[in-house]
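DM from R.C. (forwarded with permission)

"hey, sorry to bug you on a friday — could you get me a structure for this? deadline for the figure draft is monday and I only need the backbone to look sensible"
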Amino acid sequence: MNLRDPLARARGLGSAKDGVRHWWVQRLTAVALMGLVPWFVWLALGLIGADQFTVRATIGQPLNATLMLAFVFALFWHAQLGLQVVVEDYVHGWLEIALQIVIKFACALAALASAIAIGRLAFSL
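My reply, with the result:
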């Protein structure tokens, strides 16, 4: 028994087999951010009024640098996945493809720049 429309079967249209992975990754990054966002807020509030050396030393600690990297990567990955869904739903044609490429590159570039900045803080002490 096949529930697909005969016209769709003839055109070869169907599932791209990627939706479940996208859904799971978005949920996993959300769960990771549920733990990392309170840590980040606690850290940022604790550094209010601190001098530059204290901020560098705090972020440069191995645990804080590791958690900061995890926060940055989860944040940008989650943002990219969410923006991808919005563009897929509301933008069509050539603009959809262009926006998807821009979003992927922008998130990757921002994550890379953040990782380099965290690395400089962690390894410069």
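R.C.: lifesaver. The chain has one domain: 19-123.
me: no worries. The chain has five helices and no strands.
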